[in-house]
Amino acid sequence: MRVQLNESNKSMKTQKSKIQDQSKKIVESLPYKIKDIALAKLGRDKIDISEKEMPGLMELRKKYSRSKPLKGFRLTGSLHMTIETAILIETLKDLGADVRWASCNIFSTQDEAAAAIAKTKTPVFAWKGETLEEYWDCTLQALTFKNNLGPNLIVDDGGDATLLIHKGFELENYFNEHKKLPKITSNIEEEIVIEKLLRKVHKLNPNHWHNIVPEIIGVSEETTTGVARLQQMVEDATLLFPAFNVNDAATKSKFDNLYGCRESLADGIKRSTEIMLAGKTVVVCGYGDVGKGSAQSMKSYGCKVIVTEIDPICALQAAMEGFEVRRLEDVLKRGNIFVTTTGNKDIITLKHMKKMKDQAIVCNIGHFDNEIQVDALNKSDAKRDQIKPQLDRYTFKNGKQIFLLAEGRLVNLGCATGHASFVMSTSFSNQVLAQVFLAKNKPATGIYDLPRKLDEEVARIHLKHLDADLTKLSKSQAEYIGVNVNGPYKKDEYRY
């Protein structure tokens, strides 16, 4: 199910949850959990600078700060705890929300940003270099308000907060039906960590997730990965609450994914390795929006770029841009740098890495953490040496070496500071609009898209910052192409 959200959607009453079992706290009550509160001054200085580069969020604060459409709503965020995210958090607070936050990646937190937010007495649970156990504990903290209450609204990136709720709900259903908990059968480390955490929650309150789900109005999802998870839930008829697809707004996918990666990929590689990119052969796996931005980035630095693709349309686009399109297996000995951008798993396998040329660099800027077979690499006979945080050298038995960045997680966040503030302003403006719509309309369960009119509004706000002037349609011109003089200017099915 995929539906278009528009301003005429009628509000639907949410089911009231059962009274929470307050006898045992689900989490330890903490004001925050970060690396160092002393970093707050540095974080605040950076926030002050970046606010000038985030006109979308500043405009939305002006528009909604008086009416406070999020007042009275508990909001959980699971999204990279960066300087830009700090500005998003403070925008959501200005609109009235009661906010708790965790990062969505173990390496993506800027500790000064987390400290600045913690200083404002906003509960934040994030630091750079979390273990998987710490990461999921932080996610649970962000989802747990006073008296074991859960959120009404969720801002998600990659779907981890949504996943934890659904997994917990599923576990409780199993227990209620079978009067016992299922055995943990997974051999994947992260899945085992999640299952153990959910069993801990179940022991404290066997109805915790069933208590909080009825009061969840919805989630706004930031990424392709998270949207794919949501769509699978819809297909399986397991989606528990409405979801807003922020990722496919043009002012998100074409800006964050394409223009953001165009700058932040090189930033991550160069900060981590300090190599010169010019003249290197770079293999970009995937040519969607992220792949397009990545390929453009590497080409602009003077790299020879090879693209791998499964989709003939994307492959044709790459070829028409002058990129060589090959199978990964055929270019392993040619590439100096390998970048995954697909959002799929097992793109670069252990077998691939063993066949790469000596000193090859391997990294990921797609969202899935398993695009590269890092677990298999760590379990192999290759010797691992940490050169510095998020830069590891692996030496195989034959003496050949490769370098892995950010342990296969997002290189632009693990090894740098993510996308630039301006491009995140477009993305996060969509998040705020999505949250306002969810709070206002309380739609039925399903996946919703941002109306084209609001997509255009986000773009219009940011044009002012770039000293760009829009041409205006005449009435006759608008009638000729069948649109309103003031937009929207494209049909919903139009692909930018």
Question: Would you write up a description of this structure?
Answer:
With 496 residues, the protein is of the alpha/beta class. It contains 18 helices and 16 strands. The chain has helices at 40-51, 55-64, 83-94, 111-119, 132-143, 160-178, 189-204, 208-212, 224-236, 250-273, 289-300, 312-320, 350-355, 374-379, 411-414, 421-441, 452-465, 475-481, and strands at 2-4, 74-78, 98-102, 124-125, 153-156, 218-221, 243-245, 281-285, 304-308, 324-325, 337-340, 360-364, 383-388, 391-395, 401-405, 447-449. Strands 1-16-7-6-5-2-3-4 form an eight-stranded parallel beta sheet, sandwiched between helices. An eight-stranded mixed beta sheet has the order 10-9-8-11-12-15-14-13, with helices on one face. Strand 6, helix 9 (224-236) and strand 7 (243-245) form a beta-alpha-beta unit. The protein is globular and about 60 Å long. Mean pLDDT is 93; it is low at 1-22.
